[in-house]
Amino acid sequence: MTPVLDLVPIWTLILGLAVFFYVLLDGFDLGVGMLYGLAPEAHARNTIMNSIAPIWDGNETWLLLGGIGLMAAFPVAFAVIIPAVYFPILVMLLALVFRGLAFEFRFRDAENRTFWDHAFCYGSGIATFAQGTVLGAFIQGFPVVDGQFGGTSFAFLTPFSVLTGIALMFGYGLLGAGWLILKTEGEVQAAARRHGRVCLVGVGVAIGIVSIWTPMISPSVAARWFTWPNMLFFAPVPALTALVAHAAWRALGSRAEATPFLAAIGLFLLSYLGIAISLYPMIVPYQLTLWDAASSPRTQAFLLVGTLFLLPVILTYSGWSYWVFRGKVRSDAGYN
After folding, report:
1. What sign for the dihedral angle of Cα 31, 327, 46, 40?
2. Among 20, 47, 271, 280, which residue has the least CB neighbours within 10 Å?
């Protein structure tokens, strides 16, 4: 009998990268959207808007890839996760749509520009909070009965998920501040440094609380981190997190322009790694492993062929757009 190649690790890597790229890329422009509401006058708001105008909608490609990949490669997990977090996902999508409308109409409906300015800011904040509650609900786990979600529509809404929602708002705010420091000058950049420090404090507090709370709600996570020799193997993750947070704080108070954004990316990468360490190999935490939820090998192989052609295309046009629109932005040159 011919052995079947196990494609689950490959699909796990693809989905993991899709989620991380979405969080990173759409995260900073959602963060910019939230900070946009703090800009004091039109000149600053125009500069902030122009910093993301050429690339903001392309960042959401990764959300589509992640959602479709989950449905196709891990349909059992999709059938459990989506009903469990249907409401915050609906809120997130509506907020993203409203945010997109606000972006377009701000430039074309001058009479109501103030309304669209507020809509862009609030849409960014609501979408971010909704994503954070999805993350919190996912980490807590879902009740599963006979392979189906066994909870209620509002089971996702807990103190822990509210905390992660607020934490992600600080996290995206930190990414957005780093992007504005990289792309702007003068008072807009100085304000981004101030906002970045506030967001960094929020991120640090949130990481500490989540790191303590998660092992308390899950014995398996506690065993993963606090048994020997795992403690030795995984100790570099919190140590590096503290070092990167310190570097970010210093960079935000200096004249460095790229370092704050890179440090924010580092904090997200380490947090993402910490979640992966805590939950692997679960895709529906504490209920289903990646292999339990996977589609058939033939289905995964068929989908992989197209995906391996698609990924280079996405990476190429994304990289090209960032390269073309590199450098500082001005309030009088941008989207129109």
Report:
1. positive
2. 280
pTM flag (> 0.85): yes
Distance, in Å, from the CA atom of 297 to the CA atom of 304, rounded to the nearest integer, reads 10
Using alpha carbons, list the distances in angstroms from residue 25 to 21, 132, 321: 6, 16, 13
CA proximity to 95, closest of 65, 64, 121: 121
In sequence order, the β-bridge partners of residue 39 are none
CA-based radius of gyration for the chain: 21
Helix (H, G, I), strand (E, B) or coil at 292: helix
At residue 2, the pLDDT reads 46
Q: Which two tokens stand for residue 103?
A: 């972006």
Tokens describing residue 180: 């504005």
Please report, for residues 85, 240, 273, 284, the alpha-carbon distance to residue 280 in angstroms, rounded to integers and kept in the order given.
Answer: 20, 21, 10, 10
Instruction: Quote the CA–CA distance of 246 and 250 in Å, as a whole number.
Output: 6
* Selection from 92, 114, 121, 99 nearest residue 33 by Cα: 121
Burial of residue 94 (CB within 10 Å: 0-12, 13-18, 19+) is: middle
- 301 Rama sector, left if φ>0, alpha if ψ -120 to 50, beta otherwise: alpha
Dist. CA 82–CA 169, nearest whole Å: 22
Q: Are 43 and 331 in contact (CB under 8 A)?
A: yes
Answer positive or negative: Cα dihedral of 177, 276, 60, 322.
positive
Q: How far is CA 197 from CA 23, 248, 251, in A?
A: 20, 9, 10
The b/e string for 248-257 (b: 16+ C-beta within 10 A; e otherwise) is bbebbeeebb
The Cα 12–Cα 7 span in angstroms is: 9
Residues (pLDDT < 50) of the chain are: 1-2, 335-336
Burial pattern 134-149, b for ≥16 Cβ within 10 A else e, equals: bbbbbbbbbebeeeeb
Distance CA 300, CA 280 (A): 20
